[in-house]
Amino acid sequence: MADSAVKSMTGYAQARGERNGWAVRLSLRSVNHRFLDLHLRLPEGWEAFEPRIRQALRDRIRRGHVDVTLHYESAGPAAVRVNREVAAAYLEAARDLQKQFRLLDEPDMAAILRLPGVIDSAGPGEDEQEQVASIIASCLEQACASLDEMRRAEGRALATEMRARLQHIARNALQVESLAAESVPAYAQKLEARLRDLLADTAVEPARILQEAALVAERGDVTEEVARLKSHARQFEELLAGPGEVGKKLDFLLQEMQREANTMLSKTPGVESGGLAITTLALEIKSEIEKLREQAQNIE
After folding, report:
1. Residue pair 117/85 in contact by the 8 Å Cβ criterion
2. What confidence score (pLDDT) does residue 286 get?
3. What's this model's pTM, rounded to 2 decimal places?
4. Beta strand 81-82 pairing with 64-74
């Protein structure tokens, strides 16, 4: 059987890039969603890069809720900039106080660096934005490739489990078809016995019994439902093996399969043992379809 091409919408990836004193760490976390839903968390002063990041992700990801987190790390003087004028003003004020109160201690430089406005954390300057954008683009490329591989691996695992459920549904559907066919002569015998009890010595016309049995057979005929289930299962298999976004198509097929299972249940004949067996099998089919729908919600 061909390897599945479907992708899960669940995954995580991270990438790091460093150049000319700037170090960037970017992480992507995705879960299922009906559409592409991007949530970005960027450091203060890095908002200028948001449109590029969004566009790059739209080019690579079709569906899912994706959390994007970007951190920058100290990797040299470019990552930490000191506002010397503000620092000098704080230092001058500290020394004036030192002289005024005849203090012996020298100003604490570490404390001055923690004062508002001394460390500039506004992000890259205009002359640095292009090189930082290049680092971010490289991180996005790596992270998206890793995320894509993780989503493909998850998709392959999902497809394997979904195929097993499809086979279970197909086996149960065939058993339902067989039991429904067997229930017709059983019902005919039961009908004849009842009529003989009711009518005592009165002769029972075989044609009448056959007619009643035929009506029951028509009402309980699940041939069409089984045929449609098989057809939907084949289409499901083809979608699992095919390319592109198939999650919504799978969900639609499963809705149709659920409708067929409900019809099977409504056609359960009134024969105790056979009817109970058919009901049990149809309920198992419905349960497997529900599980498939839950899994299909996570397919891109």
Report:
1. no
2. 94
3. 0.71
4. unpaired
> In whole angstroms, what is the distance from residue 23 CA to residue 225 CA?
61
* pLDDT tens digits, 156-186: 999 999 999 999 998 998 888 888 777 656 6
Q: Secondary structure of the chain in the HEC alphabet?
A: CCCCCCCECCEEEEEEEEECCEEEEEEEEEECCCCEEEEEECCCCCHHHHHHHHHHHHHHCCCEEEEEEEEEEECCCCCCEECHHHHHHHHHHHHHHHHHCCCCCCCCHHHHHCCCCCEECCCCCCCCHHHHHHHHHHHHHHHHHHHHHHHHHHHHHHHHHHHHHHHHHHHHHHHHHHHHHHHHHHHHHHHHHHHHHHHCCCCCCHHHHHHHHHHHHHHCCCHHHHHHHHHHHHHHHHHHHCCCCCHHHHHHHHHHHHHHHHHHHHCCCCCHHHHHHHHHHHHHHHHHHHHHHHHHCCEC
Low-confidence ranges of the chain (pLDDT < 70): 1-4, 74-81, 120-123, 183-220, 269-274
| CB 81, CB 123: distance < 8 Å | no
> Residue 81 pairs with which residues in a beta bridge?
120
pLDDT of residue 56: 95
Residue carrying structure tokens 């992270």 = 143
Tokens of 267: 């056609």
